[in-house]
């Protein structure tokens, strides 16, 4: 019998590659599609991708609970409506490689929000890790002057929104990961697309429209399902460590696909952030989890990756 022990890791790695590719491709799409419209198309594409598997599972009783609906609604607003627009506004101002690395700030934001509002304990190692990631982000922004600071600030605010999303959806019960992703995609995608059509006033061509929906389907829809499938077998710690390579993949793809120059600041920041992310993801875990009881992903939730309020690291979200 063949050994399939490495298959879950391959799934998580493929999920990281799909998500990491979204940043350089988004940079290219921003030349023809406005940030609001593009954010809307991405999330609608994600909804389309997960819709076929979103009709079963979960708890109908919990889905009617008002508290659960408020939590999910808040996650949709922060993570689905506000976060992606701030991210794309920052991406429009900076190199895709730098923005890819700035996305590491989301892990820091999620961790600090969990500490500040959800009574999660952070040890000294985690604080050092957060400092390394923030230092790397500053190193990236400094050479670009005011523009770099503005871009980095917008991406950091987007990561704070996604950090709130992570923590809120970690408390949501009754919805499967596919259901949460579909709801977030339909609502947030429709809102941003409507705002984009009204404010930006540009209707993308058929080719750009198709590419944007495809990126949303693959990078925000299929990527999530692959990650969850791998993490269910691999466990929270190892799966999150593998997925945390996605910003670095995005940086490499920006250099190759967009022919962006590799700056020394990016290489230095990548080293600091990689060290910080590794320390953070390994410091906050107790025994390895082999189940998927309470969790979230950047399409996050209570049942797809790890439990943020119990000391595990949240899975990627968006």
Average predicted local confidence, pLDDT: 85
| Helical coverage, percent range | over 70%
Structural class: mainly alpha
Could you tell me how far the N terminus lies from the C terminus, measured between alpha carbons in angstroms? 38 Å
**What is the tally of helical segments?**
13
Describe the overall structure.
By secondary structure, the chain is mostly helical. The protein has one domain. The protein contains 13 helices and no strands. It has helices spanning 7-29, 35-50, 60-63, 66-93, 96-102, 105-117, 124-141, 145-169, 177-199, 206-234, 236-243, 246-257, 264-283. The longest helix has 29 residues, at 206-234. The protein is globular, with a radius of gyration of 18 Å. The protein starts with 6 loop residues before the first helix and ends in a 35-residue tail after the last helix. The model is unreliable at 285-315 (pLDDT under 50).
